[in-house]
């Protein structure tokens, strides 16, 4: 399978936004846009990652959309199962609520909430063993890019998880390359830079797993309606993880539409 035959993914990462009423409105508007002009499921997978407290409400609200829209958790516990772990939500509890996707390794979790390589590995292990699909985020800081070690850092983050992913579980992984300096800053990696890193990630994945050619590699970092067409045109960018622009139904729709035309 060549990279261009991978069905693209567009996933909205809402982070700690928005209030319930606005979230409701956002989904209603997005469903309406899909009614007006359909984006066929086979052209593009679409998902949204609301806050934990809104997850099941949004999932219910999406049930009558004219196509599948996945509900994605933004995080999960490094502890599995159930038990005396105040404040935690495990992979099994997500699964029990029919949440089938989870983000792991987002740079905000790594930088602000202490998700080091060991924690990320534990979360990934739990998610995959509970049959969740994982969007695994990787990306370098500006300093690392300026030092010329961006590629090394990103490939290391991929190698970090190799020991906990069983051969057949690679099918349940999507990679999101998100250069930290491009997240929420309005600075997008140039399509050429993003494409170059995606090629390196693809090469790395192919060395680690026989499934490497089939894994979707998304780009994230200030993706908006204005740059989506250009990013979607890059052969090795198989979709987008969208933060800020996913809070606007029209922008998110346009981004999904750009990738659906890939
Ligand atoms: P951004 O965030 O699109 O607002 O830059 C992307 C992300 O952090 O997933």
Automatic annotation (TrEMBL):
The enzyme's E.C. designation? 5.3.1.1
State the name under which the record lists this protein: Triosephosphate isomerase
Q: Where is the active site?
A: 106 (electrophile), 178 (proton acceptor)
| Reactions catalysed, as given in the entry | D-glyceraldehyde 3-phosphate = dihydroxyacetone phosphate
InterPro entries recorded: Aldolase_TIM, TIM_sf, TrioseP_Isoase_bac/euk, Triosephosphate_isomerase, Triosephosphate_isomerase_AS
Could you provide one GO biological process annotation from this protein's UniProt record? Answer: glycerol catabolic process
Q: Which UniProt keywords apply?
A: Cytoplasm, Gluconeogenesis, Glycolysis, Isomerase
UniProt subcellular location: Cytoplasm
Q: What family does the Swiss-Prot or TrEMBL record give for this protein?
A: Belongs to the triosephosphate isomerase family.
The coding gene here is tpiA
Among Gene3D superfamilies, the record links this protein to: Aldolase class I
Q: Which NCBIfam families match?
A: tim
GO CC, sorted alphabetically, is: cytosol
Q: What metabolic or biological pathway is this protein involved in?
A: Carbohydrate metabolism; erythritol degradation; Carbohydrate biosynthesis; gluconeogenesis; Carbohydrate degradation; glycolysis; D-glyceraldehyde 3-phosphate from glycerone phosphate: step 1/1
Q: Where does substrate bind?
A: 13-15, 184, 222, 243-244
Q: Which SUPFAM superfamilies match?
A: Triosephosphate isomerase (TIM)
Subunit organization: Homodimer.
Q: Can you provide one Gene Ontology molecular function annotated for this UniProt record?
A: triose-phosphate isomerase activity
The species this protein was found in = Acinetobacter tjernbergiae DSM 14971 = CIP 107465
Question: What's the domain of life for this entry?
Answer: Bacteria
- Coiled coil, from the record: none
